[in-house]
Write a sequence for this structure.
């Protein structure tokens, strides 16, 4: 497993979706994951520190986990198959750790709210074409512009050519 953090959250109006890009904390690879508008908005709001009068769905989930005596230990982007990324949320409760299947978007939304670490399984990085991390401000802007115009199908085109898989990158 590779430690990761959220590098960027980009809204793509034409698709009404977001691209959440994860970066290896001790490497140079970026992994974009396309997520729905609601989940992307939730992640972006938490990263910006926005507070709402009433709890949003992911805030409610964090509250429920805590009220039941649990604590999110980590989230792991663990697989990509059948046109989808997969994730697991690891919840510690007393002397027991529960592994809960999740969409990566929900796992990341919970992680940013609880300051929990995010990891990517090495096999996900091996299965997916990754992008090397930009260095300069201009390269960051160019990267964000490229992501706005890149559809999930184009990103995973290499998988189709190399292994016959048809992944869309949607989770």
């Amino acid at each position: 497993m590779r430690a990761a953090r959220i590098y960027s959250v980009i809204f793509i109006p034409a698709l009404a979706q977001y691209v959440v890009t994860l970066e290896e904390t001790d490497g140079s690879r970026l992994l974009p994951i396309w997520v729905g508008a609601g989940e992307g908005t939730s992640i972006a709001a938490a990263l910006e520190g926005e507070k709402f009068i009433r709890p949003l769905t992911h805030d409610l989930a964090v509250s429920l986990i805590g009220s039941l005596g649990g604590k999110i230990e980590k989230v792991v982007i663990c697989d990509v198959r059948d046109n989808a990324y997969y994730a697991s949320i690891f919840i510690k409760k007393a002397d027991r750790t529960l592994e809960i299947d999740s969409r990566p978007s929900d796992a990341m939304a919970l992680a940013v709210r609880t300051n929990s670490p995010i990891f990517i399984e090495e096999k996900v990085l091996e299965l997916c074409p990754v992008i090397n991390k930009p260095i300069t401000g201009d390269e960051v802007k160019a990267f964000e512009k490229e992501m706005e115009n890149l559809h999930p199908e184009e990103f995973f085109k290499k998988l189709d050519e190399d292994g016959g898989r048809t992944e869309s990158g949607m989770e």
In short: The first helix runs from residue 37 to 47. The first strand starts at residue 2 and ends at 12.
